TrEMBL record:
Organism whose genome encodes this protein: Penicillium malachiteum
Protein name: 54S ribosomal protein L10
Keywords tagged on the record: Ribonucleoprotein, Ribosomal protein
Family, similarity comment: Belongs to the universal ribosomal protein uL15 family.
Gene3D superfamilies per the UniProt record, alphabetical: 3.100.10.10
Amino acid sequence: MSPRLMGLPTQLQQFIARPFQSSPLGFLTPQFQQARNASILSSLSDNPSAYNKRIRRGRGPASGKGKTSGRGHKGQKQHGKVPAGFNGGQTADIVVHGERGGVNIFSLDMAPVNLSRIQEWIDQGRLDPTRPITVRELAKSRCIHQYKDGVKVLGEGSSTLKQPIHLVVSRASASAISAVEAAGGSIATRFYTRTALRHIMAGETHPFISMAWDINSGSKALFAAEGETVDESAVDEKAIMQAKGYKFRLPDPAGRREIEYYRDPAHRGYLSHLLKPLESPSLFFRSPEERKSTAGVKKEKVLPENRLW
């Protein structure tokens, strides 16, 4: 008997050592043959978190990091530390050539969509041009696949626009605005946050109505397409939320960059109704017309009543 079988139970040894006896009717019985690859033993290993090899430096050649501990031979990199960007003692490259590249941490990642794609979705019946087209309709119809920080409409394929459409998006290019308005439609840019976009996708927030939304700022066509009747003076946000069953309110911008963008009528911002005549969208700089209007005005000095001179 093979020495490998000596450690097995007696019955198992007899079964393995017994010669195979073929039956004359063996071709009628189903042949169940189990094949097992012997190399499976070489692929056995612990779970990924069961064994963690810690690097032990300077513990002899067997550790893999012995003798010089991975530092190499001689030089500043072995004997001391080399600062990042060190250029051997001469003038650093960042001083000679300056900084290049970089990442703008304040930039927004907008999902672009062209007017040609919107018109294609309308022709296929996947978008209804008689109703306002918001980020919810664009995402639900798979016209955009990721709404990210919002949606920006671009003017590519503007000549294919056949009917007036009403868009409420985060941003829009100048060519897209002119093309949509030339076709009899309207564009309104609206501030969104990522949390607000998730609520809109879940149907828990109105896609564009908020406290700062004004019915008289070019949005009457939106409400007419929406099929809602509201007061001409203001939008009753609370009544609309109760009627639609919304849980959350849509936020308005609080940062200066966002407020200035959506106050600009050139961007068709929904806060443009807050501007006074000749007022600049900027919260810091004044427009040239506003400066000219206030330059010639001379303020009269008013003295208090109890002043003698």
